[in-house]
């Protein structure tokens, strides 16, 4: 079974330079680029107008954004190595975890579903959990790994598990309740760029320069199966709300949607060969699984069949 | 004047407080300056007593203090106490500096020389005193005040970095002599020597104009060493100007390896002095060793009457200093191609390439083009310039000269640059383009080395992309349109081959590369010149891979042909 997608809307010059970061809530699509601002476009409105701009967010540019499922809070990581917290209800800055020393600089970030906890991965492989509800932000957990650059991190929906992916192919799963490492997943020899817990928290999807999407069982640590088909480095991975589909984006400009039921790729999108740095499903409205990608532009896609509207 | 002095005292006091509180010497960048060795600590007390009555003027190396763990703490503390503090608490012990003068093992022979020189009372035999200026013996006198009690009387010499670029070397000579003369008075009045240099602080990001203060005797041992190096370089510059010789920075370093410690010290100090005096470096009669290469259809007419024909097969011609160039005649070329590297080093022997038995040969970029004569067949018959990494002044000045020169056809030349796709490559590109690697406003004479019309030919981000689509992904990417297509899996063989052969020359970014990229971002992100390459820096950081010129491999000539040809068509339309 394949899915049909149409380009619903493209915002070509949303940012002056490439767009690296994407965070989606029911209200806002947050994007970060080489410029110092974070832009918020409307997610619901079919024309996706610019609703708000966080000015002076990151002086040197922003490379990752994570938004909470509840849509109340977002965090962003900048090239200078700091992390900023944004209140999406009042549209204002809500504190900052400042730039650490050179090795401890934050790279990868993730936010819990309610936005109260955030997970950071740093240049030297330290994985930390922070309590964002009150300042000064407390460090709840500090996991030490093998001093390898952390490219991606994720928290499970219930916040009990954390996972990190590293430049040498290392993948670690931590139990936040005990503070122990649950699994060290080996076998991936290349940079791991995307890591994501399924909505149920039972599966972990991992992607990266090995051009394969690997699905692990969180409890056993076993690799359940693989998705193959990408022909370049895979930059991002995301689950649909139901956990039925996965979306991945790659360096060669392809965005692929994978079905967990049929275990196949159901759609390949991509008009240009410019890298797609991040892709994400939109919160589900109606029956279609709509999505948004960022790279040189912000592009919204609408599922053609079953979407109901022409 | 008084406010300047206060500032200085504040600074010194803060330094002094640091030291006093730490009780242990700060060895932060000491090694960079001196390169101390472990033997320093193995000097026996007998040696010390031998030199305790040393009153002969000898210059800084011997007077230098290395504080090591073997020195009794009492001596150590008083030793590093700054004069200002000593003056405030009455007079310091008279012997404070002496015991440690011999701590530096490799300086002992010089001390002996100096002691002998004292008996013959002939300062000219002192190896560290320039024989050309015996009448001044500045070094000896400087050491004298180091040995004596000091009061807080000082002489401050200030060079403000105003634009003096049109002044002759004789003016520099006069400035140096003025300073030395001013010091002579202080030495007699037992004061301290302070030099304030205004220049561009390259270590800052973004770089900015700032003051560099040298104090003698200073609160820390390395201050004295630095001051010594400073005086030595001025002495050598003075000597060079007087005798109308040219010293290279390498020459200067080898004049006193122990004093300078590293080539970097000499380079920094020479640049600081030139910057503070507001003159180009060559006015000091100091140059860098010839490094850059040029090859192409041009002739360089030198001031001594000789003509260098650069249109010969071979490894290219060393670029002479601009002062030696009378004029340059360009013949049948309308393009200049600046290449970062002469030879590509073979450091791509990672695990996988060993595994797959890739033949990683040294790929000579500039040399291949120059030797094979391939450049003649490239569009525009480019003149090739290679600065071998960061270009020296002569290379940049030649590029600037060509930029101002018209070809035989009466056209200005087009300038292209081929560098690695990594932070250093982009830095080198900016250096050619702006004349220096710091932002444009900071340099005075860098304008005269800049090639504002320079364009970045490669290697670019899209070349990695193309590399990928050419090697691994044969599928046509243009037909998918906005309507999605059902995915067909690509043949497995193709995928496997791709997955296990990393592209040649595409390497992961190291921690050093990342730090360099971030510091360049900080430096350039809000400048006009930075707009062009900062996006590339971010892509490097985000993607985590860099690409060297050798990513082009055997396709270099074809690549250059296409790119240069494409640029020319782009220009015409």
UniProtKB/TrEMBL annotation, chain A:
SMART domains: WD40 (SM00320). It comes from the Eukaryota. The lineage of its organism: Eukaryota, Fungi, Dikarya, Ascomycota, Pezizomycotina. WD repeats lie at residues 55-96, 99-140, 227-268. It comes from Arthrobotrys flagrans. SUPFAM superfamilies: WD40 repeat-like. This is WD40-repeat-containing domain superfamily. Keywords: Repeat, WD repeat. One of its GO terms (cellular component) is protein-containing complex.
Automatic annotation (TrEMBL), chain B:
It catalyses: ATP-dependent breakage, passage and rejoining of double-stranded DNA. Residues 86-134 are annotated as: Disordered. Residues 88-105 have a biased composition (Polar residues). Residues 117-131 have a biased composition (Low complexity). The active site is at residue 254. It comes from the Eukaryota. Residues 226-286 form the Spo11/DNA topoisomerase VI subunit A N-terminal domain. Its EC number is 5.6.2.2. It is an enzyme of class 5 (isomerase). PROSITE patterns: TOPO_IIB. Keywords: DNA-binding, Isomerase, Magnesium, Metal-binding, Topoisomerase. InterPro entries: Spo11/TopoVI_A, Spo11/TopoVI_A_N, Spo11/TopoVI_A_sf, TOPRIM_Topo6A/Spo11, WH-like_DNA-bd_sf. PANTHER family: MEIOTIC RECOMBINATION PROTEIN SPO11. This is DNA topoisomerase (ATP-hydrolyzing). It comes from Arthrobotrys flagrans. The lineage of its organism: Eukaryota, Fungi, Dikarya, Ascomycota, Pezizomycotina.
